[in-house]
Amino acid sequence: MFVGIGYDVHRFVEKRKLILGGVFFDHPLGLYGHSDADVVLHAVSDAILGAASLGDIGGLFPDSDDKWKGISSQILLEKIMELVNGKGLIVNNVDIIYIAQQPKINKKKKEMEQRISEILKVEIGRVNVKATTTEGLGAIGRSEGAAAQAIASLVQK
């Protein structure tokens, strides 16, 4: 078994769609980034890349390359899964925590788990999404942005 952790954070801005875990949220602010800034999928991507010893998302898809500008994080994660599967590895499970004051994700948590399961090609029970706030502390507590952490385990095919 191979284990990796991932973390990502982005600030909130106006005039951007908010995508979390591959799911659209109707929210007045979106997250700023070179891609669609899906902090949940970015954390999952780095956790999987770490477990497979394949570097990190910024190394594979640098923000200095306009080829990746505005790209869906789902597409990036699909490309990562091709690399991981090419090494003879598959995802065993992923545990994710979304860290933000807003938006609340509870109503879409199952949809997020379903979408991530589809991208990773694993049973839905192998993906867990949860959330917490920072109790008003720091930049995230002031609703200036959102973060996510993930841990992934991989096994040989």
Automatic annotation (TrEMBL):
Annotated 4-CDP-2-C-methyl-D-erythritol 2-phosphate binding sites: 8-10, 34-35, 56-58, 61-65, 132-135, 142
Pfam family, any one: YgbB
Reactions catalysed according to its record: 4-CDP-2-C-methyl-D-erythritol 2-phosphate = 2-C-methyl-D-erythritol 2,4-cyclic diphosphate + CMP
GO biological process, one term: isopentenyl diphosphate biosynthetic process, methylerythritol 4-phosphate pathway
Domain 2-C-methyl-D-erythritol 2,4-cyclodiphosphate synthase: 1-154
Domain of life: Bacteria
Cofactor binding comment, as recorded: Binds 1 divalent metal cation per subunit.
Binding site residues for a divalent metal cation: 8, 10, 42
CDD domains according to UniProt: MECDP_synthase
Co-factor requirement: a divalent metal cation
E.C. number(s) listed in UniProt: 4.6.1.12
Pathway: Isoprenoid biosynthesis; isopentenyl diphosphate biosynthesis via DXP pathway; isopentenyl diphosphate from 1-deoxy-D-xylulose 5-phosphate: step 4/6
Alphabetical keyword list: Isoprene biosynthesis, Lyase, Metal-binding
GO molecular function: 2-C-methyl-D-erythritol 2,4-cyclodiphosphate synthase activity; metal ion binding
NCBIfam families (UniProt xref): ispF
Similarity remark: Belongs to the IspF family.
Known role: Involved in the biosynthesis of isopentenyl diphosphate (IPP) and dimethylallyl diphosphate (DMAPP), two major building blocks of isoprenoid compounds. Catalyzes the conversion of 4-diphosphocytidyl-2-C-methyl-D-erythritol 2-phosphate (CDP-ME2P) to 2-C-methyl-D-erythritol 2,4-cyclodiphosphate (ME-CPP) with a corresponding release of cytidine 5-monophosphate (CMP).
Subunit annotation: Homotrimer.
PANTHER family, A to Z: 2-C-METHYL-D-ERYTHRITOL 2,4-CYCLODIPHOSPHATE SYNTHASE, CHLOROPLASTIC
Name assigned to this protein: 2-C-methyl-D-erythritol 2,4-cyclodiphosphate synthase
Source organism of the structure: Candidatus Scalindua japonica
